Predict the structure of NAD(P)-dependent oxidoreductase.
Amino acid sequence: MSEFRVGITPDVLGSNGEPIFGREVLGLLDADGIAWEYMAKEEGGVVTPAQAARYDAICAMLTRVTAASLAGPDRRLKLIARFGVGYDTIDVPACTAAGVMLTIAPDGVRRPVATSALTFVLMLAQKVLIKDRLTRTGRWSEKLDHIGTGLTGRTLGSIGLGNIGAELFRLARPLEMNGIAHDPFADPALAAELGVRLVDMDTLFRESDFLCVNCPLSEATRGLVSARLLGLMKPSAYLINTARGPIVDERALHDAISSGRLAGAGLDVFEEEPTPVSNPLLQFDNVIVTPHGICFTDECMRRLAESAFRAVLDVAAGRTPPYVVNPP
């Protein structure tokens, strides 16, 4: 058969020039008729029409794909395989119109992202960041001023009960927390299996002691976590966002924390990324922040790459891969 050409976006390479998922997984692409290479780094981090003409498949981390990327007359591209579950960096309607399949890798992020959300819950409950700073600055006498929050009987809430949200509740089961979620597409049988009560959005914000954002970014969810909803939360509650930054109104979140109407937050994502060091949310001792990478572990990176590369193998062999975003 003719050679099937695969481009891997260069943002998967660490500062040492090695792929963040390790070399071993690249062996999946060493199949007959498949040729792969790292793509040239383009200004602005956008796939160009020339690249869409060069490759049958592109495996993308953060690199964006726009309608202009697919506008070339000699386009060869058939597949974009995301190293991740979000696809707000990809113009999906343009892909569909051009006949380009988009796949994601939910099997790669399910456990790592759920574990990350739970990490924030545990760190905030135990006030780890504050106690770390007390220790580093020799302020041991202040430790009784920062008593943590016990989790037994507390309420863990989730905006979303999909792939990651469900896994979060599975992981939290031994902690004996009460689980509630809001998701208009939730499977009631799954919720019952997990012991999670499905509630309306206002109830979710009112009752949660730890509220995790586990929904995709869309026009419907942009700014979803608003000043009004934050105003419903308990002053002792925490907000955790490991999904996408624009889902949360950062100004409203800052106001809620600075006024004492919210106990704190755990944020892996921001409205603007990288978030500027002047972001006032970074000044709080009760806000734990990470650079949109708390889930980045060797396990996560390997699973993302395996999922993306298996999608490539399926398309090269004429099979439909799993996790297709735009089936038409």
The chain has two domains: 4-107+297-316, 109-289. Residues 109-289 form a domain with the Rossmann fold fold (CATH 3.40.50.720). The first strand starts at residue 4 and ends at 8. The chain has a mean pLDDT of 96.
